[in-house]
Amino acid sequence: MRLEKCWFCSSTIYPGHGIQFVRNDAKIFRFCRSKCHKNFKMKRNPRKVKWTKAYRRLHGKDMTQDSTFEFERKRNRPQRYDRINTEKVLQAIPKISKVKATREKDHITKRLSVGRVNRRTEDRRELEQSISLVKAPSVLKEDATLTLPKQKVTVSYAQTENTPMEE
Amino acid sequence: MAARFLSKSSSGSSLLGALGTSLVGVGSVARQTTSKLTYSDIFFQQQRTFVQMGTKLKVVDNSGAKRVMCIQALKSKKGAKLGDIIIGSVKEAQPRGKVKKGDVVYGVVVRAAMQRGRCDGSHVRFDDNAVVLVNKQGEPIGTRVFGPVPHELRKKKHVKILALAEHIA
């Protein structure tokens, strides 16, 4: 049993799923589901179709180079069965996939963090500039609680009695 | 959605089998307006059915024939699939070959556009319909086979064809 990769979307094809298309030049195309198969028949290039792994890798959306990919590379040399080795490999597989998943997630978080920072600065700027649309500036001046908290002031009990109200 | 309905009707029913793909094609165009499939989608989602009477197949050995028209699919009322034997009439042949035009020959289907299920649950389909000419005993007439062949032939005991093949899919 061998877990193949879909030619179009690069997802794993489990046994019993998908269609294998053999072209006359003996090149075999495996598809995980009819969606990928139909896209192939429409002659779509997977590098241009947004939801495929090929597109995401090409456009830097997903991680491309990492040492965890080395473990999954196809090796054509047959290996003699070694019980200890097999046990070790079976124990290592979930660990490696966990590491790979966290690294991929970090890659995406890092890529999206720039946007998050930009959005926060823009929101802050909008709040400062357009707060007058929400409440009139004169009202804001009267009530201290309606102004934006510009700085945190640690207040001790002795001080609250002495500081006058803002007017 | 329309394509799924078509596949159910074409592979199961023997009524449609006799009429071939023509009726199915008409039905799909009629359904065009109801589903979101465009004309180009229907064009690319051709419904593939069995190799039956009238099917023209390519001959992929060096027996001399070029094209063969199926006149009978042995062992099935619906038609021949990948790995089955058919009786064909040679429609086009090379000038100096072992078979001539108009000969009635036996052939083994080595490539079929209709998908065939394998025992592990996967399906295989090829790009075209191709046949290798054999004699009544099942031995190939030619000495070479071109293109990929499926390993379904091993189960059907066409071992000689597998031996001659250049690539086994």
UniProtKB/TrEMBL annotation, chain A:
Major location category of this protein: nucleus
Localization per record: Nucleus
Domain TRASH: 6-44
Family annotation (CDD domains): Ribosomal_L24e_L24 (cd00472)
GO biological process: ribosomal large subunit biogenesis
SUPFAM superfamilies per record: Glucocorticoid receptor-like (DNA-binding domain)
Superkingdom of the organism of origin: Eukaryota
Entry keyword set: Nucleus, Ribonucleoprotein, Ribosomal protein, Ribosome biogenesis
PROSITE patterns: RIBOSOMAL_L24E
GO molecular function annotations of the record: structural constituent of ribosome
Any one Gene Ontology cellular component term annotated for this protein: ribosome
Family membership noted in the UniProt record: Belongs to the eukaryotic ribosomal protein eL24 family.
Protein name, per record: 60S ribosomal protein L24
Organism of derivation: Rhynchospora pubera
Lineage: Eukaryota, Viridiplantae, Streptophyta, Embryophyta, Tracheophyta
From TrEMBL, chain B:
Matches recorded under InterPro entries: Ribosomal_uL14, Ribosomal_uL14_bac-type, Ribosomal_uL14_CS, Ribosomal_uL14_sf
GO biological process, one term: translation
UniProt keyword list: Ribonucleoprotein, Ribosomal protein, RNA-binding, rRNA-binding
Superkingdom to which the source organism belongs: Eukaryota
Gene Ontology MF terms: large ribosomal subunit rRNA binding; structural constituent of ribosome
Keyword Metal-binding: no
Similarity remark: Belongs to the universal ribosomal protein uL14 family.
Official protein name in the record: 50S ribosomal protein L14, chloroplastic
Organism this protein belongs to: Rhynchospora pubera
